[in-house]
């Protein structure tokens, strides 16, 4: 879906489909360079990372096996708590494997730092993170992120896999959601 079909739901388009594509291609070249021996297992975090995974995996010029996890990052309430529950676990055994976590966005960083440690504790050879977006001013914990598409301001964004109440994931671009859409909550 194009932003023009969303009326005044969005305030600003931060990154267009084309910008996202170009940046992902740059990241793919870095990733290819960083794994010269064996391609990493790509681990996508459902559901937001679906678009990033689809585009990154096809951009990579090596075998790109994909696996998926679903986690709930929030405990009670709407604030990220660092309490993470696995809703769907990996199919693959990652013992001795290089793992590249593919994410849509890092906000507080609590989910990703938990996930990275969790995968390391299963005996992965290495665990790196690739995220399309990051909100550096929202970080609450240090997370070592190897590949970042774009740093963005602390605003609620949707599109390219990111949702508000499950909507807007199929918007091609990344855009700031207009407050009137969620202020009625
Ligand atoms: P952390 O633990 O880094 O949580 O705070 C990251 C997760 O929070 C969600 N998230 C967003 N989803 N627009 C969204 O649609 C946003 O601006 C946004 N910020 C955080 C998302 O699920 C991410 O995986
Ligand atoms: Mg997510």
Automatic annotation (TrEMBL):
- Single biological process term from Gene Ontology: hypoxanthine metabolic process
Its UniProt entry gives the catalysed reaction(s) as: IMP + diphosphate = hypoxanthine + 5-phospho-alpha-D-ribose 1-diphosphate; GMP + diphosphate = guanine + 5-phospho-alpha-D-ribose 1-diphosphate
Q: Name one GO cellular component term.
A: cytosol
Q: Which GO terms describe its molecular function?
A: guanine phosphoribosyltransferase activity; hypoxanthine phosphoribosyltransferase activity; magnesium ion binding; nucleotide binding
Which InterPro entries does this one have? HGPRT, Hxn_phspho_trans, PRTase-like, PRTase_dom
Q: Give the Enzyme Commission number.
A: 2.4.2.8
Q: Where is it chiefly localized? A: cytoplasm
Keywords of the record: Cytoplasm, Glycosyltransferase, Magnesium, Metal-binding, Nucleotide-binding, Purine salvage, Transferase
Q: Where is the Phosphoribosyltransferase domain?
A: 23-164
Asked if the Swiss-Prot or TrEMBL record annotates the protein with the keyword Metal-binding, the reply is yes
Q: Which cofactor does it need?
A: Mg(2+)
Tell me the compartments it is located in. Cytoplasm
- Asked if the keyword Transit peptide belongs to this entry, the reply reads no
Pathway listed: Purine metabolism; GMP biosynthesis via salvage pathway; GMP from guanine: step 1/1; Purine metabolism; IMP biosynthesis via salvage pathway; IMP from hypoxanthine: step 1/1
Instruction: Give the CDD domains listed for this entry.
Output: PRTases_typeI
Q: Which family does it belong to?
A: Belongs to the purine/pyrimidine phosphoribosyltransferase family.
Protein name per its UniProtKB record = Hypoxanthine phosphoribosyltransferase
């Amino acid at each position: 879906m194009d932003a023009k079909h969303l009326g005044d739901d969005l305030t600003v388009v931060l990154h267009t489909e084309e910008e996202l594509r170009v940046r992902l291609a740059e990241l793919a070249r870095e990733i290819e360079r960083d794994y010269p021996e064996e391609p990493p297992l790509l681990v996508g975090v459902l559901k937001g990372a679906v678009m990033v995974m689809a585009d990154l995996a096809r951009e990579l010029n090596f075998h790109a096996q994909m696996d998926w996890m679903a986690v709930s990052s929030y405990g009670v309430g709407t604030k990220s708590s660092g309490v993470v529950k696995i809703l769907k676990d990996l199919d693959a055994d990652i013992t001795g494997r290089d793992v590249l976590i593919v994410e849509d966005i890092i906000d507080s960083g609590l989910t990703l730092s938990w996930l990275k440690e969790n995968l390391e504790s299963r005996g992965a050879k290495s665990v790196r993170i690739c995220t399309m977006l990051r909100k550096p001013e929202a970080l609450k914990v240090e997370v070592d992120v190897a590949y970042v598409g774009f740093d963005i301001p602390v605003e609620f964004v949707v599109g390219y896999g990111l949702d508000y109440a499950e909507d807007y994931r199929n918007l091609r671009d990344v855009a700031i959601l207009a407050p009137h859409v969620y202020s009625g909550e």
